Amino acid sequence: MNYFVKGNPDLCIGCRTCMIGCVVAHEGAKIFQMKPGEYVFNPKLDIVKTATITIPVQCKHCENPACMNACPVGAIEVIDNAVVVSQNKCIGCKTCMIACPYGAIDMVVSSDGSKQLDGNSRMVANKCDLCTGIEGGPACVRVCPTASLKLVTEEAVETSVSNKRMAAAISLTQVKE
Amino acid sequence: MSMGIPEIENAKLLFIFGYNGADSHPIVARRIIKAKQKGAKLIVVDPRITESARIADMHLQLKGGSNMALVQAIGNVIINEGLADQKFIEDHTNGYEEYKEFVKKYTPEYAEPICHVPAEQIREAARAYAKAETSMILYGMGVCQFAQAVDVVKGLASLALLTGNFGGPNMGIGPVRGQNNVQGACDMGALPNCYSGYQSVTDDAVREKFEKAWGVKLSNKVGIPLTHVPHRVLEEKDEKKKIHAYYIFGEDPAQSDPDLNEIRETLDKLDFVIMQDIFMNKTGLHADVILPSTAWGEHDGIYSACDRGFARIRKAIEPKGDVKTDWEIISLISTAMGYPMHYNNTQEIWDEMRSLTPSFHGATYEKLEALGSIQWPCRDESMEDKGTPYLFTGGKFSHPDGRGKFFATEWRPPCEVESPEYPYSLSTVREVGHYSVRTMTGNCRALANLEDEPGWIQMSPEDCDKLNVKEGELIRVFSRRGSLMTRVLPTERVKPGATYMTYQWWVGACNELTTPYLDPVSNTPESKYCAINLEKINDQAWAEQCIKDSYESIRKNMGIDTAKKEV
Amino acid sequence: MGKQILTTCAYCGAGCQLYLNVEDGKIVSSTPANGRTNEGNLCLKGHYGWDFLNDPQILTKRLTKPQIRKNGVLEEVEWDEAISYTAERLSEIKAEYGPDSIMGTGSARGPGNEANFVMQKFMRAAIGTNNVDHCARV
């Protein structure tokens, strides 16, 4: 099963620490040595605020991902329980962005500084990769000051389902015929 | 704060008044959330749907500038419904009968048209506040930055007195102060009326103690507050009463103070302006002397958190450039003026301060090293005195007779209200990722990437429709004092007619618009209310270019070689 | 190998404790410490707000040398000149208009308590006025 990061709107205060944590995790500490215009700042999650909700929205890492199915060049694959875009394969066709029902994919300037044939900066699909290959796991979860973000693993899902079944069983014993 | 930050999560009810922890102190907001998780009731009074309001049990979305009417209506309900703590009132307070008499007229029905909060909701909030086992009030600049501010603070304290919510853990009243060391600057006597530890300059015994220690005669005349400086420069006719020189240390009035036009005029009119800071800033453009100092991370010292907690700051890196610590610069000037001052390190200064300040006397460097943080009062140097988590233990107050005093007065509307010409209200608020005048955070790459010039104006979707503007569009904002451009941020979290701008921006500097009206006691300006108008800009490309040009010109003025670098 | 320096965050009054991680005399990151108020948590300013010490010159620029305005233009000078000029001008104004014609500020920001104590002592003992205040009001 793929993992995903789940936010709890009762705990989120919309401070956006997660968004910077995401960028720093993916771009590395080198951005603090670079000139401000020379690196890209592409958070892979975005805070949404309405009158009643505050929560970051990011990829759900679907089991049957619409983005992966739609990608014409096979640039999206499942690696280590996460749906990941290989930005070097991406042709910037935006099909995945349209296919995603969560609005979790956007198009950004590639962080490797590469150019397109027309000389412009290369545009690629940008989405949460659960910090695959980054020590300590998802940075957003690590830096959140209110612990509103959790990494949901297969084990966590199983425990949650089995706890709910246990509760259901107990409640069933109270139902008299 | 009468309580400590950790206690917030243990209160049974939090009454949050004009305080948006999520944007001003995320780490305090974390305690509010924990309190809620632990089952506390949350009542939020704010004209906006803040993060706390969003998760609150009750949100009183009052009209800006009506605080006093609401506070007294709550007092009225508590008394009328017999919810007051009579024993606490008898044992620990003065002035109850007068208070009771005064708030008689402030029925919820009387307050409703002023506050735009239904009378029944006011009743429910009052009942919940009075009935909870421990109720804690947290308030912020939504109380303080009004011309009627001190009255409201006393009014809130009266609610705590009325219900006996003082003197124990997890209760009381907490001004959650904004800047990292605003508590410390007050603690150390950077105030016109007191020395360190709130010892009055008009108290003869206190003054004699300082005179003896410092070997010099001291003035017994209370000084003038910072916000009176423009008046004392621009309007005072008597040369002897005028302010002629201004030593500005670690502040940027040309960005942070209200009515910037007036501030600039003031700075230019002064005979001599000294600016001592770490970054070039807007005040520096008007300075006669600039004294560069070390920054946080480059020097040692102690800060005071908003809950009276002293904690160490430590030097981590060597400063670049020809700079000195602030205390060394001041000491050198003092010595050159014939009053020699010399310290080898911050501990020597701290020890001198402790020797003159009974309530901080026990907070030694050694003890801070061992305990990490000490909340004052801490009187005894022995390890037994670990400081004071909450004040007024057992209901004993700092008035000479040890009793708390009730306070009530008439509600006054803000000094400048909406008019046909200026039909919207503007309140200045904080940007979560930026700090104060932004010289520090505006020069942090990641934080500047997240939000940068010119900033936003929060408007209701209805107002956006009316003006035919959409998210991200540049809009012109003007008041009787100035005008600027900023970006439109439609949000359901504000009421029609009310707008909000974060005060951190230089291009979209909302203090070009704000009024210089002050609270008569605290002299705090009314940054939370002024009247503005809004105007759609048809040529957006032109407006975008203006913003870009004005950012570039600011950077050039600050001494950045803009040709070398693009942003 | 780098070092870790325990300190108090420079932003807001929550008094969070954090470690500044220093390598080759430069701060490279911060780590939350288990402080009384923050219990191992930081917000975005605590995590990423140390970068101004690297002076990336986004909005403005670090001051690195004293300056005096001469003929309307700020010019860099040595400390001796800046100190004696400042002292002289303040003494002149004090002599002409009295100590209450001079206003000084404390700082609610980076300098710390000791610097504020020294500032108010200077205003009171050396200048002779209680005209000292800070931005608590704004």
From TrEMBL, chain A:
Transmembrane segments: none annotated. The keyword Iron applies. It comes from the Bacteria. CDD domains: HycB_like. It holds the Pfam family Fer4_4. Residues 49-80, 81-110, 121-154 form the 4Fe-4S ferredoxin-type domain. GO terms for molecular function: 4 iron, 4 sulfur cluster binding; metal ion binding. Keywords: 4Fe-4S, Iron, Iron-sulfur, Metal-binding. This is 4Fe-4S dicluster domain-containing protein. It comes from Acetobacterium paludosum.
